Amino acid sequence: xxxxxxxxxxxxxxxxxxxxxxxxxxxxxxxxxxxxxxxxxxxxxxxxxxxxxxxxxxxxxxxxxxxxxxxxxxxxxxxxxxxxxxxxxxxxxxxxxxxxxxxxxxxxxxxxxxxxxxxxxxxxxxxxxxxxxxxxxxxxxxxxxxxxxxxxxxxxxxxxxxxxxxxxxxxxxxxxxxxxxxxxxxxxxxxxxxxxxxxxxxxxxxxxxxxx
Length: 212
Hints:
mainly alpha
């Protein structure tokens, strides 16, 4: 995909989703961190239902660590992978209290020292909670980026690197949400709605299908 096409694709995404924002509900960096950990292999809608009850009494690291792992599992059971997620949340909460004076760290590098926090989670928290410039590559961003040709890669890190080159740094966080919205609303995993996609003339995936 030529640079001019990339610019056109990004401009169209911005036009389509000018108000794109995180779907997870949170009020503090800590709540966002917990919600993002829970969102792995789970819908944001389900996570929001779970955290609504969980955060009533356990919205801080100090409150969270009063729960046993079994008790936390009971709250988050419906999010899937609940044992691993409960272990990560409790471990991360303890580290926040013991290593960061009770505050969620505000850099990607420090965030990634917490249990259950990989590059994607760290990028989300850094960009959304702290206003940093970062692109988190989830399944939607990975799929749409590869299909459009914005960034080709076999791994999330490869796609992240490509997107960082293709997009102005000041737009990284916004572009992350544009791509997520497009993946959820139009460029579905199994049945992408290419017929109604205004990005079709710029899309590598659509062009290949037309040739077939």
